[in-house]
Amino acid sequence: MKLMRIGDAGAERPVVRVDDDTYVDVADLEDLLFTVPQEFRQLVDARITAGQVRRFAGERVGAPIRRPHQILCIGLNYRDHAAETGQAVPAEPILFTKSPNTLVGPYDDVRQPRGSTKLDWEVELGIVIGRRASYLAGHAAARDVIAGYLVCNDVSERAFQTERGGQWSKGKSAETFNPAGPWLVTPDEIADVSALGMWLDVNGVRRQTGSTATMVFDPYEIVRYLSQFLVLEPGDLINTGTPPGVGMGFDPPVWLSPGDVMELGIDGLGSQRQTVVAPR
Description:
The structure is a single chain. The chain is an alpha+beta fold. The chain is built from six helices and 20 strands. The strands form five sheets. Strands 1, 2, 3, 4, 5 and 15 form a six-stranded antiparallel beta sheet that branches. It has a five-stranded mixed beta sheet with strand order 7-6-18-11-12. The protein is globular and about 55 Å long.
């Protein structure tokens, strides 16, 4: 199933996409996706069978999940991306965080922060946690706590990230820095999460082409690993790293400016489009 949230920012309502034209309202069922997913699916199927569907009418598409308890990110998790940055493939996942209020819809503007000189893009596979978890024993247990997957753009300010000292989070947490969606796809609709093509264009020029096949740590290992250090909560979002082709990897580097348009997507998970706008 494909869970979406549509409506004005701050007033989105959850729906399940039936097709390009129609959806089922699930405002009264959303929490079941994270607590009793099988019941959620049965109730949604019953509504579709009963003809309880509505037509999209040009509503804004928001991020498909509510603001999460935390956004966790894995750095240098693609072998070919590590190579383009000149860094070694990590022996263990590199963890950093983004502020949860960076989350925006897949077609919302990305705002360049004040003082930004090196604004960059990163298409990423996002994992959404379905139930509270800690100390998971293995990949099977990790698989059972994943509610679904989605496209994320891990927007980054490289000067803030690498030249200002401290944590990577400093260059990752400006407003609008985590477009997500357009929908959350449940795991049963993805044949192999470790074989998904990924792409990102800037102003119509292909910049990133990759596959989750080159991940250093696959989604199940990431979830298992993180659960050894912190408690994962329902709705938590994990950004799992990016393939090669980020702006900082070019010679000379390519940075985003107001007016630039990013388009990006992952096989089976849909696509996004954002325009960069000037600082406030």
